[in-house]
Amino acid sequence: MKWSEVGRKVQYLLNFEDAPDLLIIHCGGNDIGDPAGSNCELRHKMFKTIQFLHNLLPSTRIIWSQILPRLRWRDEICHEALEKARIRTNSFIATIIIQAGGAYIRYPEIVELNTGMFSDDNVHLSVIGNEIFLYRIQQAICAFVTSDTFVSPPPGESGPWLNLI
To answer: What is the pLDDT confidence band of residue 116, given thresholds at 50, 70 and 90?
Structure first.
């Protein structure tokens, strides 16, 4: 899924379900480095979509699930530049969502140095990477429902049993 589809997809789903209490958005990775637009344009589109969703779902807490690193990006020319764009995009969107009363999910164990987190295509997660990804989402949902926290896991926290570095 690409970012341009997020707003329409949520709006479509509201035809069948009530507005959720939490909306976790995990999207944008397929847009990083897209030759059709700059990363600055992407962040602007993301900002506009978040505003749209906030107005569409005023009682829903919007959660940003950070864009994960990849060992290889689509149409990659300079890996470091795309990683920098990913980090900037995550920071930008997390800031906007937190300022609007939302929250942010981090994945401290899923880093490039933990190559075992990635499948052989160097893009998607491996089985263990996917398990950790899902664990962190479950952990975040519990944290956001039971407390006023806005980041999960808290900065500096990573499961020592999951650190493979």
So the answer is: very high
